[in-house]
Amino acid sequence: MSVNTSTSPSSDDDSDRNLDSPGNELTFSAAVVIALLSAPAVVGNALILATIWRRTFLRTSFHSLLSGLAVTDFLTGLISQPLYALFHLIHRKNATAVQDNSEVVNVIGIIAGFSTYLFVNITVDTMTVMSVERWLHMSRRSLTTSHRRYYAAIVVLLFSIPPLVVYSLALKEPAFWNTLSKVKIANFSFCYLTMSFAFFKVYQIIRRHQLQIQANGTSQNFGQPAIDLAKYKKSVETMLYIFLLFSMCFLPFAMSSAVALISTAEVTKNAMSLSLVFVYLSSSLNPWLYIWRMRDIRRGLKQLLAGLRP
Questions:
Q1: Which has the higher per-residue pLDDT, 302 or 203?
Q2: What is the pLDDT of residue 15?
Q3: Dist CA 281 CA 285 (whole Å)
Q4: Whole-angstrom Cα distance, residue 4 to residue 158?
Q5: How far apart are CA 291 and CA 47, in angstroms?
Q6: Burial class (CB in 10 A: 0-12, 13-18, 19+), 65
Q7: Residues ≥6 apart with Cβ < 8 Å to 147
Q8: At residue 267, does pLDDT exceed 90?
Q9: What Rg do the C-alpha atoms of the chain give, in angstroms?
Q10: Is the Cβ–Cβ distance between 16 and 264 less than 8 Å?
Q11: Which of 146, 209, 238, 263 has its CA 20 to 30 A from that of 107?
């Protein structure tokens, strides 16, 4: 997924490809909201990272992936959101500053767009790896060893490279914007289907164990070690909540991006602006979801805050 926040010195037809036009009134309002969402994203994810890195509880591969997601959300709130808001606020309130410092303003827009696109892709890829990790964990093939965690991190980064290459090309040649839209939709569709499939497989595993327990009064699975069904169900439920929040925040943007391929109407541009607010909103809501659903995170945070008191 992408957000085109850069201005282009090309023709008016090329500027119409910018689905997030700085002059749009709704886009300006969205920028104000995004600026306000920056603070809770930075503070909330900083607390989550500090809690996990203090090692007050046993960290698993899931916590490693979760910390990666928190880092991405933290950087989104620290870099992407303020720059996105600044770019649109400058365009809306100070046309003279735009004319006198056009290169600086353009650089702000490019950094905001590129960083947003980078962090969004990393978020989508990390969520995909997290769902697969839960599936492997339930299948007794977890990413428990350090080298497998590194492999997972490499996969996340590698999947983010091709879309970023296309994005870089689109900054130089506006003709690539349609290609970029197709790439981001294809990437999101693949990751979303992978997540859905992984959760379906996890549901099958849990359901199979439940039926065995009911039939045999035991949680043995064909000679494999027993699993703590209640524990894993809670873990999967937590991941499912994260997935639902992800869907609520990212699906509208993916759908509006798909519509933008066939329509450049004003309503499409407005839909893009509104859906982008939800994308940024996820960075602010995620840490509070972790605190609500994960007891170890909640306890660790309480200990962290208690240690900060004089």
A1: 302
A2: 36
A3: 6
A4: 22
A5: 10
A6: buried
A7: none
A8: no
A9: 22
A10: yes
A11: 263
DSSP letters spanning 140-184: T----SHHHHHHHHHHHHHHHHHHHHHHHHHHH-TTHHHHHHHHH
Q: What's CA 107's distance to the chain center, in Å?
A: 24
Mean pLDDT of 193-217: 79
pLDDT at residue 74, as a whole number: 96
Share of the chain above pLDDT 70, in %: 75
Cα–Cα distance for residue pair 225/87, rounded to 1 Å: 56
C-beta of residue 270 within 8 angstroms of C-beta of residue 197 = no
Other C-beta atoms lying within 10 Å of the C-beta of residue 251: 14
Eight-state DSSP code of residue 55: T
- Rounded (10°) angle between helices 176-216 and 229-260: 160
Higher pLDDT, 294 or 144: 294
**Structure tokens that stand for 183 in this block:** 């790439």
Token pair listed for 97? 């500053």
Reported as a single tens digit per residue, the pLDDT across 119-174 is 988 898 888 888 887 787 777 655 555 555 566 667 666 777 777 788 788 878 77
Helices (runs of H) and strands (runs of E) counted in the chain: 11, 0
Residue 75 has pLDDT above 80, yes or no: yes
Q: Which of 78, 168, 172, 188 is nearest to 122 (CA)?
A: 188
What tokens were used for 9? 């010195």
Question: Is residue 185 within 8 Å of 143, Cβ to Cβ?
Answer: no
Contact 33, 40 (CB under 8 A): no
The Cβ of residue 115 has, within 10 Å, a number of other Cβ atoms equal to 20
In single-letter form, the type of residue at position 276 comes to L
Distance CA 239, CA 247 (A): 12
Cα 126 to Cα 163: distance, rounded to the nearest angstrom: 15
Q: Which of 100, 138, 92 has its CA nearest to residue 240?
A: 138
Residue identified by tokens 């850069």 is 6
